[in-house]
């Protein structure tokens, strides 16, 4: 058996052809593939605008800039996420406060958000960054209702969930990152995620004004738009009107993204099939806690997370069998950087209890039946020892 990692990209011949085609074209960066990728991605997640960027982390930074995060502004996020979800507010000088997770969904606990908002003076908090953890669509409709009441902005970190959705209270299908209940949403195209472009990311929104800001900040704050410029000296002329960055995606990467997108929906159903097999195989085994998925939710399964008491033992047992499971995540508030800001172990009891037991098993569309059975056997072999 070949080594099996927890996640892995799938690159088909058509992907390779698409990139080679772009290499032979006029443009390597800022060419026609970017626009096409943005339009097709927007359609895939059911939103109006999409802005392709260099990675998911800068997507978050651009969101914080577009929503005008100022020094001292306080935003809320979950401790069970990749650090970048929190860091984007720090980039702009703002402050992050963590809110504990829901023990069933592993996403931010919405009741705890509300408790925090009720007990703080009006205007204390400026925004929330919910995460569709592991591919579970966070109940963003409910978060939106709370955020409206307290005048908070929302950036949905949908890195784990392109293709996931939930049925809302009006029976409408809401795709993760569609920005119906958020100001902005973001995605990553890192190879362990659903769609791989090497490095890459996307911001989505339904708001034209935010869209324009994202485009401006993505490319140095430079514009050729007459309406934004003080002067115009001719065809060559541009003005730098804001302090922006070079956060662009290249045309080669966009070509890969377009090609990958064609198989994205199929990839999600494959992931769901794999998840069903795991859940079925472990259903009778008391020592293993499998994900809870309500009927109105279509989980995108970036990760398949189980909880077991001897997590370290299982991790090592699998490693010996060349199965490279992983832990998602070490709670962000216990990172030394955030500890320096006053956070400590014990602050987020549900997240910390979850962290002690969680393990992400191999989950990617090209995982074969044989490989999956091997993983299942090794897991069961360990827990029933
Ligand atoms: C991967 C990831 C990011 C960052 O994306 P990069 O493309 O690696 O910068 C942000 N948030 C979450 C939840 C992620 O999983």
TrEMBL record:
Belongs to the DegT/DnrJ/EryC1 family. The modification N6-(pyridoxal phosphate)lysine is found at residue 193. InterPro entries: DegT/StrS_aminotransferase (IPR000653), PseC (IPR020026), PyrdxlP-dep_Trfase (IPR015424), PyrdxlP-dep_Trfase_major (IPR015421), PyrdxlP-dep_Trfase_small (IPR015422). SUPFAM superfamilies: PLP-dependent transferases. The keyword Amino-acid biosynthesis does not apply. Keywords: Aminotransferase, Pyridoxal phosphate, Transferase. It comes from the Bacteria. One of its GO terms (molecular function) is transaminase activity. This is UDP-4-amino-4, 6-dideoxy-N-acetyl-beta-L-altrosamine transaminase. The gene is pseC. Its EC number is 2.6.1.92. It comes from Plebeiibacterium marinum. The active site is at residue 193. One of its GO terms (biological process) is polysaccharide biosynthetic process.
């Amino acid at each position: 058996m070949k080594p099996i990692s927890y996640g892995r990209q799938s690159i088909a011949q058509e992907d390779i052809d698409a990139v080679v085609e772009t290499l032979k074209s006029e443009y390597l960066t800022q060419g026609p593939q970017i626009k096409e990728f943005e339009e097709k991605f927007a359609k895939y997640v059911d939103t109006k605008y999409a802005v392709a960027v260099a990675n998911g982390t800068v997507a978050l930074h651009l969101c914080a800039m577009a929503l005008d995060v100022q020094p001292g502004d306080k935003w809320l996020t979950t401790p069970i996420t990749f650090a970048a979800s929190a860091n984007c507010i720090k980039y702009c000088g703002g402050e992050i406060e963590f809110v504990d997770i829901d023990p069933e969904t592993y996403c931010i606990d919405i009741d705890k958000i509300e408790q925090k908002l009720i007990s703080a003076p009006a205007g204390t908090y400026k925004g929330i960054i919910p995460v569709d953890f592991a591919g579970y669509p966070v109940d963003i409709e409910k978060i939106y209702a709370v955020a409206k009441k307290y005048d908070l902005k929302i950036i949905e970190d949908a890195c784990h969930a392109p293709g996931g959705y939930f049925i809302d209270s009006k029976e409408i299908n809401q795709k993760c990152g569609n920005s119906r209940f958020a100001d902005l949403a973001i995605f990553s195209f890192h190879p362990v995620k659903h769609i791989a472009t090497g490095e890459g990311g996307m911001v989505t929104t339904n708001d034209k004004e935010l869209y324009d800001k994202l485009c401006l900040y993505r490319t140095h704050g430079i514009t050729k738009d007459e309406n934004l410029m003080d002067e115009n000296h001719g065809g060559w002329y541009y003005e730098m009107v804001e302090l922006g960055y070079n956060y662009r995606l290249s045309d080669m990467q966009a070509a890969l993204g377009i090609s990958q997108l064609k198989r994205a929906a199929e990839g999600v159903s494959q992931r769901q099939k794999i998840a069903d097999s795991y859940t079925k195989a472990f259903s009778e085994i008391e020592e293993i806690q499998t994900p809870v998925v309500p009927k109105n939710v279509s989980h995108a399964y970036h990760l398949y997370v189980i909880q077991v008491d001897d997590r370290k033992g299982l991790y090592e047992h699998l490693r010996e069998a060349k199965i490279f499971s992983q832990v998602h995540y070490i709670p962000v508030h216990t990172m030394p950087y955030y500890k320096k800001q006053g956070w400590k172990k014990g602050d987020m009891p549900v997240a910390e209890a979850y962290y002690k037991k969680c393990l992400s098993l191999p989950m990617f569309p090209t995982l074969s039946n044989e490989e999956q059975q091997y993983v299942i056997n090794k897991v069961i072999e360990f827990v029933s020892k």
